[in-house]
Design a protein that fits this description.
Blueprint (H helix, E strand, L loop, with lengths): L1 H31 L9 H37 L5 H4 L11 E2 L2 E2 L2 E6 L2 E6 L6 H18 L10 E6 L3 E6 L17 E4 L12 E4 L5 E4 L2 E4 L11 E3 H16 L4 E5 L4 H9 L6 H4 L3 H4 L11 H4 L7 E6 L6 H13 L3 E3 L5 E3 L4 H9 L3 E2 L1
Parallel strand pairs: 14-16
Antiparallel strand pairs: 1-2, 3-4, 5-6, 7-8, 8-11, 9-10, 12-13, 13-15, 14-15
Helix pairs in contact: 2-4, 5-10
């Protein structure tokens, strides 16, 4: 009888010790573990969440397209079917009939005896290309405001009945399933691996995912300077000057956003040939006229004539701004303070470092140059 009582007491003692050890082990495990990996249903929830994000993105694109078409029609009607760059051009060869009440004249009607003479003042063949160009520009502006990954200039358009646009995505919109964070690091690639136009002693910096740039004066916030769908690549010297410009923009209470930086020769040829949404070849069938708006990508001196090919030129704007006249003036002030040179005919185009225009501006002691 006493033997049984002792046995029971020993069992209880061992049980208490086991519970105590278990509590200690559980406490240590909870201290070291932040989350329980792969809980039941985790992947299913991730798939549902991603599917919902995709539906939201598609709905946003659809609504943005409707607003963009309305804005495009209004703008083109206001400008007489002319897109933004043409609207600021006074070349009578482009618009021989001038304007009437602020709109470009399409036809001139005159009577000669019993005959009525109608003169075409604008090439109607380019109106469709102008509509597509302006629409794509407006759609990009809406897409830039969306918080998720939607590519810019990603649609091939078909225009039906003059004002109905159907867009087919050239590349799919991708969404990551899971909680992995995108790394935000700056990487460099040898210029010889990218384009022989760039001098071999320079590196190209790809800064699409760079969040912070470190400088001797402190960190500079670079988030948002490279929007989705834009290839943000520059030479090391040009990138360093862009960081300076971003710092100056922050001092002025704003920030910068790249719309175009380094271009490969293949990309420049595509722009020239009308294979991009800008459709320069369609809008300017005459090559001499087209050269006023896009760089001719052929010839031995193409690297001098087309500064984007050197990695030392940027097309840029203020982030989140509609870009009014005062906005363009502020952008110019910021970029010139950082040492860039502006192309006089394009308020968004700036160059630095080893471009022909930059060297000529230094010789003349100016920062705005044709």
């Amino acid at each position: 009888m006493f033997k049984n009582k002792k046995a029971i007491g020993l069992e209880w003692y061992m049980l208490i010790v086991a519970i105590f050890m278990g509590v200690i082990w559980f406490y240590i495990a909870m201290q070291n573990a932040k989350t329980i990996p792969n809980y039941v249903g985790e992947h299913q929830f991730s798939i549902l969440k991603t599917a919902n994000s995709a539906e939201n993105a598609l709905f946003y694109i659809d609504q943005s397209a409707k607003y963009s078409l309305e804005q495009t029609i209004y703008n083109l009607v206001s400008n007489g079917g002319v897109f933004e760059i043409e609207a600021n051009n006074d070349d009578k060869l482009v618009h021989p009939c001038g304007t009437y009440n602020g709109a470009y004249v399409w036809f001139q009607i005159a009577k000669d005896a019993d005959k009525t003479l109608v003169t075409d003042c604008i090439n109607e063949d380019v109106l469709e290309a102008n509509l597509e160009y302006e629409f794509n520009t407006k759609l990009n502006e809406h897409i830039l405001e969306y918080p998720s990954n939607i590519l810019l200039d990603n649609y091939k358009y078909t225009i039906n009945d003059g004002i109905e646009i159907t867009g087919m995505a050239a590349n799919p919109i991708t969404f990551n399933i899971g909680n992995e964070k995108i790394k935000t690091t700056t990487i460099t690639a040898k210029s010889s691996e990218v384009n022989p136009i760039i001098s071999s002693d320079k590196d190209l910096v790809e800064f699409s995912k760079t969040v912070t740039a470190k400088t001797p004066q402190g960190d500079v916030d670079m988030s948002g300077i490279c929007p989705r769908g834009v290839s943000c690549v520059l030479t090391k010297d040009a990138y360093d000057m862009l960081v300076k410009a971003q710092k100056r923009a922050k001092d002025h209470g704003t920030s910068l956003q790249i719309t175009s930086a380094y271009r490969s020769i293949e990309n420049q040829i595509a722009i020239w040939s009308g294979d991009t949404t800008s459709h320069y070849a369609q809008r300017y069938p005459d090559e001499n006229e087209r050269r006023k708006w896009v760089c001719y990508p052929y010839g031995s001196d193409v690297g001098q004539r087309c500064p984007h090919l050197t990695g030392n030129a940027v097309d840029i704007r203020l982030n989140g701004r509609a870009m009014t006249t005062s906005d363009w003036k502020l952008l110019e002030k910021i970029m010139l303070e950082a040492g860039w040179v502006r192309y006089a005919n394009e308020p968004w185009h700036f160059e630095c470092c080893n471009t022909q225009r930059y060297a000529r501006a230094q010789e003349l002691g100016v920062q705005v140059l044709v």
